[in-house]
Specification:
20 helices; alpha/beta; 15 strands; about 40% helix
């Protein structure tokens, strides 16, 4: 027993020394390593490893609060944009999005003034005089900056769009991206004929058998006027909104652009354009149109409330009617009617729809990029809700999978034969992106064609003389500017805008760029 007591005392003493040694040990600063010395031997681990140390990281610094100002038009979608702003802030709590939505005419007047006064938004929506070259116009004005910070890798982000969606001179300059196709360029756009099916039935017509030719449309309108209390057409005339009716009619016989890419000239004076105008003027002469120089909101309401049977406009209208409070409207959708004889034309599918831009005056470019990346997620909140509500179609989302509105599905079906891909001068001649020839010609007088057509429609005057005046003036400026630019070293000429082998009703074959 005494032997056991001695062993216990000895063990206790050893433990006391060990504990004392551990308690007095202090960390030593390692000596500078001798690069010529062999590596130190690694001692085997002690019987019991020490507990793993817990590293306490410094508290992350919260990002500075940012208010991001976003502006666009489409007031009927304003509630959705507010919801989108709130959804974005849930992911980025430090960024508050102030999304302001104005009426289109007011917006076009207000935004330039905001840039002049130094109060421009961070992100804004814009469509230029030449919607394909909107970026070039805005770069020239000094309004825009690249979408993303210089060190951002946009490779994955670009894959959200079909190949070929990003083109130098269209939405890229010097390799930097300035915009993106917001809407798709096949379904989205003007050209659809919307029908109030209730008015059709009241006139004894079958809403499932809409007119397919010009003569059928005219006879349908005469029947509606004679057999009901409604007018046939609701046509907006204020500003440039006649385009909503004009594009499908002009596109049915030739093209929906005032510029003729087959012959390389401004062509409002072309016999086919004049034929389309004369056809439209017939409806005014026979009192088949809701009277007055009304805006597009009034025209939409007139059709939705049964004052008119037919309204021409774009792919966005199913959602617009719903947002306007006409969710119970018995709405029909049809392709525009075509001339009874002769070669058919088509509306244009272009490398356009680049509509959202980051302002060069923005003090929050990083936050602006975060918002645009979030907005363009193919299956994100913005894409799903935008398509579900029937506002239109998107260039970066699976429209077929996300569209649920029956009228929008019909719009998508009609689009297959409505639009054809047009030739693009900026691809044939890259320096076209720097040319001011088209813009200078358009700048002679803002909305000249629209004002002249409205004047002729409301007075019954002959449109041909003023059409010739417009075409002559614009083509002279166009040719003059091209000659001056060519003399200054820019590789541009009328040939860049002329695709003689292309037919208006057929998609342009891209091999035509090479053969030039």
């Amino acid at each position: 027993m005494a032997r056991n007591a001695r062993r216990l005392s000895l063990l206790t003493l050893v433990l006391m020394f060990a504990l004392a040694a551990c308690g007095s040990q202090t960390p030593q600063t390692p000596a500078a390593a001798d690069p010529s010395a062999p590596p130190a031997a690694v001692e085997p681990t002690a019987v019991a490893a020490a507990p793993t140390a817990v590293t306490i990281e410094p508290t992350a610094i919260a990002p500075e609060p940012v208010t991001l100002k976003v502006m666009n038009w489409s007031q009927e979608q304003a509630e959705f944009y507010q919801e989108a702003a709130a959804a974005f802030q849930q992911e980025y709590p430090h960024i508050t999005v102030q999304w302001d939505t104005l009426a289109q005419d007011q917006y076009r007047e207000t935004l330039p003034l905001m840039f002049q006064s130094g109060d421009a938004p961070d992100i804004f929506f814009w469509i230029g005089r030449n919607r394909v070259l909107t970026m070039a116009e805005l770069v020239d004005q000094g309004w825009v900056a690249p979408l993303a910070p210089a060190d951002a890798d946009l490779t994955e982000w670009q894959t959200r769009w079909p190949e070929g969606s990003f083109v130098e001179g269209i939405n890229m300059q010097d390799g930097q991206i300035y915009s993106f196709p917001f809407n798709d360029n096949k379904i989205w756009g003007p050209g659809y004929m919307f029908i109030n099916r209730t008015v059709y039935r009241a006139a004894g017509l079958d809403p499932d058998a809409p007119p397919t030719t010009w003569s059928e449309l005219l006879e349908t309108c005469r029947t509606i006027k004679a057999s009901s209390e409604a007018y046939c057409l609701a046509v907006p005339l204020k500003g440039n909104h006649l385009q909503r009716t004009w594009y499908p009619l002009a596109g049915s016989i030739m093209t929906d652009s005032f510029f003729d890419l087959k012959n390389g000239r401004f062509a409002i004076d072309d016999p086919r354009m004049l034929e389309a105008f004369d056809f439209l003027q017939t409806f005014y002469q026979e009192d088949l149109v809701v009277p007055g120089i009304n805006d597009h909101t009034f025209a939409r309401q007139a059709m939705a409330t049964g004052q008119a049977a037919i309204y021409f406009d774009g792919a966005w209208m199913p959602g617009v009617f719903d947002q306007m409070g006409f969710g119970d409207l018995d709405l029909g959708v049809a392709a525009p009617p075509y001339p009874d004889s002769g070669e058919r034309g088509a509306l244009g599918q272009t490398l356009s729809e680049n509509k959202f831009y980051v302002s060069s005056a923005s003090e929050h470019p990083e936050a602006a990029w975060l918002f645009l990346e979030w907005m363009t997620r193919p299956a994100g909140f913005f894409a799903q809700e935008y398509l579900k509500r029937g506002f239109g179609t998107l260039g970066y989302a699976d429209n077929a999978a996300l569209i649920s509105d029956p009228a929008m599905l019909e719009v998508a079906k009609i689009a297959d034969e409505l639009r054809v891909m047009l030739p693009e001068p900026a691809i044939a001649c890259p320096d076209v992106g720097q040319s001011k020839a088209y813009l200078n010609a358009e700048a002679i007088r803002k909305d000249w064609e629209w004002e002249a057509m409205v004047e002729a429609l409301t007075t019954g005057a002959d449109f041909a003389p003023v059409a010739a005046e417009i075409a002559t003036a614009k083509n002279a400026m166009f040719q003059q500017t091209l000659a001056e630019e060519q003399a200054a070293g820019l590789d541009v000429s009328p040939a860049c805008y002329t695709f003689a082998d292309w037919n208006y009703g057929q998609p342009f074959n891209t091999s035509g760029y090479v053969s030039r």
